[in-house]
Specification:
mainly alpha
């Protein structure tokens, strides 16, 4: 489970880096077609709202990695994977909400 934890920590670091950059205004890291209908005046609010989903993802990956360090029993594995999957789902829902609010959805 050490290798799994290290992979989760590396993914969390990458996610955190993107989240911080987007939060600070680098919305160019988000693909252009996801920003087609975002008004120029709303770019800062859009970036901050979008990054919150990435912060949730980062937190869940770190928490899942910490849980995975507790052992290799089936219950620890199930809890660790469940935490990471729940974090992914919650972060995707948060990003979907932001996309609907600022861009009118993912595909428009």
């Amino acid at each position: 489970m050490l290798a799994y934890s290290m992979i989760l920590f590396a993914a969390a670091a990458l996610s955190l880096g993107f989240a911080i950059a987007i939060y600070r205004g680098s919305t160019n890291l988000i693909h252009d077609y996801h920003q087609t209908h975002v008004k120029e005046a709303d770019q800062k609010k859009y970036g901050r709202a979008f990054s919150k989903g990435l912060f949730v993802l980062t937190g869940s990956l770190i928490f899942s990695g910490i849980i995975a360090l507790l052992g290799e029993t089936p219950s620890v594995v199930i809890v660790s994977v469940s935490v990471s999957l729940a974090g992914i789902v919650i972060s995707l829902l948060a990003v979907a909400k932001v996309q609907k609010e600022f861009n009118g959805g993912f595909i428009r």
